[in-house]
Amino acid sequence: MTSSTSPQLLGRTALVTGSTSGIGAAIASTLAAHGASVVVSGRDADRGNSVVHRITEAGGTAAFVDVDLAGSYHELREFAARSTETLGGRVDILVNNAGIYPATATADLPDDQLDAMLAVNIRAPHVLVGALATAMAVRGSGCIVNIGSWMATMGSPFAAMYSATKAADEQLTRSWAAEFGPRGVRVNALAPGATLTPGNEDARQVLDAMTAGTPAGTVLSPQDIADGVLFLVSDRATMVHGTTLFVDGGISVTRG
């Protein structure tokens, strides 16, 4: 990321959930590199401030706002208010990136992990959109991107509830596009494929095997996902509403 990158988002503000590492950090850094003022968010202040430091060192503008997305409704709405204040009174771009992914069989999924997954993957995006999209609609502009998954489109013998939550996010995307689109707010989703992040490096061989027969033939990087988000929030996507952009190396159309 450099300060000389095209400032196509100059003057806009962005909130990216789950952006202290991995895909979220790449999204936050990419939006900042293209001119947006960004709120980096998550539970770990050290990791969040490290992302902020990298962004500001490269000439971007960012701040960290802490949140536990599995917290109460009040905490989520208070997080939305704090983020709005940090960004100077407005959020132009919301990226619901945070997600919990317990890769277990149905019977092995602990109750507390099920509750947390429903809270972070579905409830938090719903509350944040409710808290932020109305102000976007009043202004007549705004972009929301929900991060889904290639797994939402097919049956899988593991992580059934995770796949279901991502399918729910994609349905929310369609409904929110119908609800807010006529008032100037574009809502879309992006479905990543098998992506190598710092959190799953120990599964590299599994990811390599999963993607070996795909058109791309390799795992994705967080930057691949960030570039897709950048397109969806840019003016080049002004006629893109309610869709899911698959940035998955072709896994969703070749894995069966």
Describe this structure in words.
By secondary structure, the chain is α/β, with parallel strands linked by helices. Helix content is 44%, strand content 15%. The protein has helices at residues 22-33, 45-57, 73-86, 111-139, 160-180, 204-211, 222-233, 251-254; strands at 13-16, 37-42, 61-66, 93-96, 142-147, 185-192, 244-247. A seven-stranded parallel β-sheet has the order 3-2-1-4-5-6-7, with helices on both faces. Strand 5 (142-147), helix 5 (160-180) and strand 6 form a beta-alpha-beta unit. It is globular, with a radius of gyration of 17 Å.
The protein's oligomeric status is single chain
Overall structural class, as computed from helix and strand content, comes to alpha/beta
Taken as a percent bin, the fraction of beta residues is 5-15%
Q: Tell me the strand order in the biggest sheet.
A: 3-2-1-4-5-6-7
Largest sheet: 7 strands, parallel
Give the fraction of residues assigned to helices. Answer: 40-55%
How many distinct helices? 8
What key phrases describe this protein's structure?
single chain; 256 residues; alpha/beta; seven-stranded parallel sheet; 44% helix; globular
What is the compact description of this entry?
With 256 residues, this protein is an alpha/beta fold. The protein has 8 helices and 7 strands. The chain has a 7-stranded parallel sheet, sandwiched between helices.
Describe the secondary-structure layout:
Blueprint: E1 13-16, H1 22-33, E2 37-42, H2 45-57, E3 61-66, H3 73-86, E4 93-96, H4 111-139, E5 142-147, H5 160-180, E6 185-192, H6 204-211, H7 222-233, E7 244-247, H8 251-254
Parallel strand pairs: 1-2, 1-4, 2-3, 4-5, 5-6, 6-7
